[in-house]
Amino acid sequence: RMDGVAATRAIRALAGPAAQTPIIALTANADPEDAAAYIAAGMIGVVEKPMKPENLLRALQQALEGSTARAA
Prior knowledge:
Blueprint: H1 4-12, E1 24-27, H2 32-41, E2 45-48, H3 53-65
Parallel strand pairs: 1-2
């Protein structure tokens, strides 16, 4: 019963490797302020809905490479 930001903060607060789980926001709320809040909460990328497959692929590639960036 928590939103994605609260869930991300809870995961980041875990001990051990679970805290490093890559988390990407998939949201219709992707204006710059919202995206900045998702990244500040510990997410590593943001993909806007309606989702374009190439944007999701880019976010997944960035997650696997370990970079933090907004996908689109």
